[in-house]
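Session log. Operator J.P. requested a structure for one protein chain; no other inputs attached. Running the standard single-chain path with token output.
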Amino acid sequence: MQSSQAISSNFKSISRLEIPGGGQVSVSGNYAYIGHIPNKNQLGTSILDISNPKAPKIVSQIFLDDPESHSHKARVIGDLLYVNSERNMTPIGRRADELPGVKARLSKEFGREPNHAELALALNVREQDIPMVEAAQKQPYKNGGFKVYDISDKGNPKLITHQCTGGIGVHRFDVDGNYAYISTEMNGFLGNILVIYDVSNPVKPVETARWWMPGQHQAAGEKSNWSGRRNRLHHALRFGDELWAGLWHGGVGVIDVKDISNPKTLGIYNYHPPFPEPSHTFMPLEKTINGRRIAVAIDEEDHAHDAEELDRRKGRPHGCLWVFDVTDLKAIKPLSIYEVSELDSPWSRATPGRFGAHQFQEQRKGTMVFCTWFAGGLRAVDVGNPLSPREAGFYIPAPAENRAAPQTNDVFVDDNNLIYTIDRYAGLDILEFTA
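Structure written below.
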């Protein structure tokens, strides 16, 4: 039975703002910043006054002048706003990443080039979408990178630099007062890699270093043992002298950046296969537990569901939250996983949409992890016992107008422990955790 109202346990709604859907929400002081999912109005970023969290107000919005691009991520350091610039996906979304590998496999199987109908069948997409994907792959994209805005006047953001990168541009990233840790495609590499920029002078970022998984630097002769862009950096977060990275179908990894000019791999753990959903975010807890260093990772439920896709994926595990023992980074050990049952959301099988994990807050708050779960809403998970994660609450918003299911996408916890969560389609919720 579906509901037109939010469903919650141990969360209190402070307010809701009906705003276009977002890929990321960040909070700094009395302002929230939303990076918007690609949309017909080419809205890139919204700046909100949240000094009264019961009545958030839009202060200003940044619109894009390039219909090929989106800026769905946003982070703030002081009076500087950093946003990504990434190429819009084709109608088949991330399945486009699989096209080169599928072409190669079918060519070998058939002894000839596969036609569009055969490619569409193998990818489970429409035949008419294949030419669009092929055309996009042949046409260079020039605007990939990241932008920096001066937001000392929140009502009038001013662009101060657009740092270009390569390929389809920048996805998620981290930034501090000295460096930006950028996940981007670059010429000569297969899939996103880490590029570190010195941003001490934000008007003129300077590339400092690169890090990649062996097999990605194909221009240097490296050979990948995976298909297409399956293994790539989703993004890396800095904690101390380490970067903690989700590596998509390459698992999770930790990178030493004591020498910022020479990043070194400290450890990688890959659980693909057998788990099918890609690794999104990886983060260590603030404190050890029983003398052991503990970390959490979360997968992204990758494909949107339509009726055919749901039928094809029956019995397949959804994206989930992982708990790891990372005391020895050369021997990372999985301890437990946390999953949400399809019975725990009335919209778990609504189409189109996704049900499964996506992201957790990147602000460390003891052992409580706030996880976005697409049609499963927001889940509060206590990992104080690393062998047995415990759900401590949930908040599932009603679907946005004219949508079949909520798609809770990103979450931020501010210094006052208020929780901000954004839907991919529409709606910002400001919540208080009451457990």
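Operator note: Helices lie at 99-110, 116-123, 130-138, 307-312.
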